[in-house]
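Just curious. Invent one:
>
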Amino acid sequence: MRPQLVIVGAGPRGTGLLERIAANAPGLYAGSGLDIHLVDPHPPGGGRIWRTAQSPLLWMNSHAEDVTMFTDETVQMAGPVREGPTLHEWAELDGRTFADRQIQGRYLRHVYERALAELPPDVTVHHHARRALRVSGPREGRQQVWLEGRPRPLLADLVVLALGHLDSELDDDQTELAACAREHDLVHLPPDFTADSDLSPLRAGEPVLVRGFGLAFVDLMVLLTEGRGGRYEGDTYVPSGREPVLYVGSRRGVPYHSKIGYDWTGDRPRLPRFFGPPEVEALLARPEGFDFRSDVWPLVEKELGFAHYHRLFTAHAERTAMTWTDFEEKYAAAADLAETAALVAAAVPDPADRLDLAALDHPLDGVRYTSHEEFQEGLRGYVEGDLSRRHDPEHSADLGVFLGLLSVYGQLVRLGNVGPWWHGFFSYLASGPPGPRLRQLLALSRAGLLRFVGADMTVTAEDGVFRAASPTVPGFSVEARALVEARLPEPTVGRARDTLLRELHAEGAAETPDGLLRIDPADGRILDGAGRPHPRRFALGPFTDGRTPGAFTRPRTGGPAFRQNDATARAALRFLAELALRAAA
């Protein structure tokens, strides 16, 4: 019988894995025949998140020229490079366009179809438009993948879980709020992919509390304004009359930083410099393990500072007080944060040119406004300042930090579990909305349809309503009969609604303290509680401790997801090739 490979999830990650299988198969798997089963209720390529059947009002948050599904020479992998078009090249778009997600879905379908065409002729792909319910089978034997509505399982010699973003059960706080909503006929929308949420209960003219100020919020904002017939005339929003009034807050109390609106020129910083493979290997070799804050973060901070100051000194030397050569030597020799801070103070006269990661992460810490209206003006000023800075090449040290963030993420993936904070911090600085979206946010604020609540927003259920407050505006609170949790569900294994992951969890698959599935960083095999990799089960994606910034990335930035896909594809092909040889013997 021909070897059987089952890939659960046919979105960007499953598609990227198939592309790597096609690239590696000629060298690792030839002439033995193979069936690949893709299991996903949504069409292959885009999967659920990038399906073409969603509102054309929803955009990507990256320029079309910054999106690729193809490897290049910067990806550190054993397999062959197979270059291909970026999104803007394939769709013949202006590279600076923020394409809508329907276009990205069609691009992903192209990548999928190209991978199919490049597979060896004796490899066949079957798509099963169903949900996978569970995986069973012995460690050393064939696996059974049970599908919804199918009485018999798929038999698999190997299984790869490429599930993408998943739904999860409510946490304790959300459970309490949902119970209150049922008791008092309120509306509570839990964390979800916004395009899948039923927004019809959010009524025109009524206040809606929104907890979350990232990309899920931006989608919500769009669907409840333009999606309900409103329009923009320049910097003015013309309402349709069908919009609710959104009261939004979060831990930081501010939206994610705008995408940078200019291109890189000149020399790039040599990355990694202070946090690269040697430092990662040293951390992994510690018998006592490592702590992110005390052991990893100082290296990350030094790396991001290096990227920032390299750009400042080489592109804006007039704003510095020493040569780059002198600064770099002293920066590398600085033994602690105090010594580094003293060096920076001497070399960079304007505090606005210095990198302060703590201030970036907590922009409203200690900030207090005397009234709600004063805070509206203050936060509009903050957003306007962010838009101005992120579109002004005089502040191109910010783009240096962006490159540093990409480099750091590529190294952190190798460490595995670093906790949830880093991913949120990265997204806040490097994966924010397009500038036009923040200009729309400002227009909605001026129109009175978007109101800012503040940092450390709390939501309680009292007297039959939801009530939100924030220390940013002492004494202010707002009541509403609707609450939206504007964020994706936490990708924890124990609370996943996906029965397949819950079964793995029940069987003893290892998880991090934060609930992510533990995998072998070398090839993605699922680990058990004793740290043993499962010989026939792999996992890739945001529900694992090998999570990456995304399944696709900027060209020529080393894409850690591509490296992972290649390692998993090669490990799977080698296993299946040996299996085929044994069967033929």
